[in-house]
Each structure stands twice: as C-alpha cells, then as structure tokens.
Amino acid sequence: MKNYRNIVLTGMPGSGKTSIGRLLAENLNMSFCDLDEYIENKFDKSIKEIFRTCGERYFRSIESRVVREISERRGTVIATGGGTVLNSENMRLLRQNGIVFFINRPLENIISDIDASVRPLLADDISNIYKLYDIRYDLYKEYSDFEILNDREISDAVDKILNIVKTIE
C-alpha cells in the first residue's frame, strides 16, 4: 500500500475483525497483528485471565501501551480489540499512520455465533453486548475513515475494503 500505511479494523467483539484482517493482509501482502493475540502472547495470559486477575482498568492500560508500540509499524493490518476505541489517545495513535475501518456487523449475527465464554465483558451475560454497542457505536463512527457492513461472507467485507484501498492508493 502506498507509503506503507496501516489498515486498522475496529468494531464490536465478534464483528469479524480478526478473520477479515488475516485475509486482507494476505491479499495485500501486508503483515497482520491482532492486538488481543499480541497482548496474550506478550503477557503469556489470555485476555479473560488478565481481566479476571487484574481487572479491566489494568487491561486497558496495557492495551494502550501495545497500541503505542504497534501503531509505529508500517504496512500492517491491525485488528483492534472491541474496546480499543474507548481511549481517544489509542485512536489518535492508530490514525496517524493508518486508515481506520469500522467493521459493522449486525448484533443478531454476532450473538448467533460468538463464543461469549472467551469474551470477558460478555461471559456473564451475552445481552451485555447491547450495552457495549450503545457505548461504543458513536465512537466507532467518529474514529473511522470508512464503515464496512459485514452482514454476509467474510470475503465480501474483504473485497469491500480492497476496493476502497485501491481507490486511495
């Protein structure tokens, strides 16, 4: 991609950011980084375990440190965690070297196939997704350069992003 800008994917947990990101990186011959996986590998703990033992506040602090580190990369497709958007500094850093796509997947689709047990904020009650959506939706819209509706196959969302990327190269 021109100037090796990053492609940043935001959206709700279960919106398809990781799956889309992997395919997108492959298609564009870019590297791929899933922030949650990166955190799990770096700290040798699952996100769920970090939430359980240290709390959300601690998790958000390490998430911000990782965003600072990852945002300095070039030519990387970055799948953010669903709550990364809650910190304006995270989004400022990601936007300064990246194009941000909001992967908007209907909540009914997410609920029908998400494994809530591995999602700390949804594990106790899947209906919490509605509260998260209410809190985050406007932020996803505010910080994104483009919105992609992911209501079909993952490959359709990838194609939509590829078409946009081609027009801005």
Task: Kindly list the characteristics that best describe this protein.
169 residues; alpha/beta; 5-stranded parallel β-sheet; 8 helices; 5 strands; globular
Walk me through this protein's architecture.
This protein has 169 residues and is α/β, with parallel strands linked by helices. The protein has eight helices and five strands. The protein has helices at 17-28, 35-43, 47-54, 56-70, 88-96, 107-113, 128-143, 154-168; strands spanning 6-10, 31-34, 76-79, 98-104, 146-149. The chain has a five-stranded parallel beta sheet, sandwiched between helices. Helix 1 (17-28) packs across helix 8, helix 2 packs across helix 4 (56-70) and helix 3 (47-54) crosses helix 4 (56-70). It is globular. The mean pLDDT is 89.
What sort of overall outline do the alpha carbons produce when their principal axes are compared?
Answer: globular
Number of helical regions: 8
Share of helix, binned: 40-55%
Question: Quick one: biggest sheet?
Answer: 5 strands, parallel
The value of Rg in angstroms is 15 Å
Model regions low in confidence, pLDDT < 50 over at least 5 residues: none
- β-strand amount: 5-15%
Provide the succession of SSEs: EHEHHHEHEHHEH
Distance between the amino and carboxyl termini: 6 Å
